[in-house]
């Protein structure tokens, strides 16, 4: 009787399992940066490990270090074998060019004024155009900043992100100085070749949110007094390849009151990543701002947009 009770209480020993804190779309790493991948394993005793890439065994260590030197998608198969059995997991890593301005040195609470009158600047693998400077009557193109929120100098709020980019690697972000007459501003790939842009992160400038929320800074109050005017503010990104062929575009609603209802009125106030892959491989991106608040071909909404983390994957 006692023997049968002992046999009935015998528990099945589970197999070892692999756990890894991998983002849903896989890991990302900048070209020439380092990423260390360290899987967690239950019952990790007398275990053998294998990392397979493209059908070839590349490592028998538990952890893997990758320093990519080019754009690539790495699809690893990580496997373990011990007395509890065999387990495996697919791990993907995308190497990329990522323009996040982290290499730029900028004093606290300021922005690049281009007093030298440069016609462009480069960050990572992207060249940004700039026409004019902070002192000019007209300044279009791109600059960079680390300003967030309101500022005692109202003019500085044009270059201030509504929300702090805490989740990103750098406190510095880019600012689009768009043309009120809807002529495009342009960024180009540094090597002049066609590449696949994965995404760009966008947020409104504090100055713009104040303008459309309260009717300040030359703008009408979006929605009007009742909140039912069908106003909108849109950024259009168009991709053009090195042969001059337009490949596609992406439209981003920075403010959307088109429902005609207070309940559904929205203004972009948080950093948000937008997919650009449907544009295809291009060598330049053009940016145009359009608004329901316009007259005579000119938009009245202040033409400033904050951006960060421009990613290229092919």
Question: How many structural domains are formed by the residues?
Answer: 2
The CATH superfamily of the largest domain bears the name: Protein of unknown function DUF4465
* Helix/strand order, N-terminal first: HEEEEEEEEEEEEEEEEEHEEEEEEEEE
Compute the separation of the termini in Å: 69 Å
Total strand segments: 26
Radius of gyration: 25 Å
Q: Percent of residues in beta strands?
A: 35-45%
The number of distinct helices, counting runs of at least 4 residues, comes to 2
Could you describe the largest sheet, including whether it forms a barrel? 18 strands, mixed
Range of helix content:
under 10%
| Shape label | elongated
Report the CATH topology name of the largest domain. Answer: Jelly Rolls
Parts with pLDDT < 50 across at least 5 consecutive residues: none
Which structural class matches the secondary elements?
mainly beta
Could you give a short description of this structure?
The chain is mainly beta and 314 residues long. It has helices at residues 2-8, 206-214; strands at residues 18-19, 27-30, 35-37, 40-41, 48-53, 56-59, 64-66, 72-82, 85-99, 120-123, 126-131, 140-145, 147-148, 160-161, 173-177, 185-189, 195-204, 232-240, 246-256, 266-267, 272-275, 281-282, 284-291, 294-295, 298-299, 304-312. The chain has two domains: 2-96, Immunoglobulins (Immunoglobulin-like, Sandwich); 100-312, Jelly Rolls (Sandwich).
């Amino acid at each position: 009787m006692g023997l049968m009770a002992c046999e009935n209480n015998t528990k099945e020993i589970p197999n070892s399992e692999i756990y890894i804190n991998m983002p849903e779309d896989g890991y990302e790493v900048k070209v020439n940066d380092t990423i260390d991948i360290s899987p967690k394993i239950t019952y990790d005793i007398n275990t053998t490990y294998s990392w397979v890439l493209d059908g070839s065994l590349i490592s028998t260590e538990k952890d893997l270090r990758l320093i990519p030197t080019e754009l690539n998608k790495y699809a690893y198969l990580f496997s373990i074998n011990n007395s509890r059995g065999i387990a495996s997991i697919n791990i993907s890593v995308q190497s990329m060019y990522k323009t996040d301005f982290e290499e730029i040195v900028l004093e606290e609470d300021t922005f690049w004024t281009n007093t030298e009158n440069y016609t462009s600047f480069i960050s990572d693998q992207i060249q940004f155009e700039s026409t004019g400077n902070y002192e000019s009557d007209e300044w279009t193109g791109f600059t960079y900043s680390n300003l967030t929120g309101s500022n005692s100098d109202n003019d500085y709020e044009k270059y201030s992100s509504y929300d702090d980019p805490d989740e990103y690697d750098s406190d510095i972000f880019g600012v689009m100085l768009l043309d009120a007459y809807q002529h495009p501003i342009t960024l180009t790939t540094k090597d002049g070749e066609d590449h696949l842009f994965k995404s760009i992160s966008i947020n409104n400038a504090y100055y713009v949110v104040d303008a459309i929320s309260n009717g300040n800074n030359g703008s009408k109050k979006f929605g009007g007094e009742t909140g039912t005017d069908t106003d909108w503010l849109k950024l259009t990104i168009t991709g053009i390849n090195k042969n001059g062929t337009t490949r596609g575009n992406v439209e981003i609603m920075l403010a959307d009151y088109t429902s005609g209802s207070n309940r559904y009125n929205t203004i972009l106030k948080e950093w948000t990543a937008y997919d650009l892959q449907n544009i295809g491989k291009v060598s330049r991106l053009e940016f145009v701002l359009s608004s329901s608040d316009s007259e005579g071909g000119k938009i009245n909404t202040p033409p400033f947009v904050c951006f960060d983390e421009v990613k290229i994957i092919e």
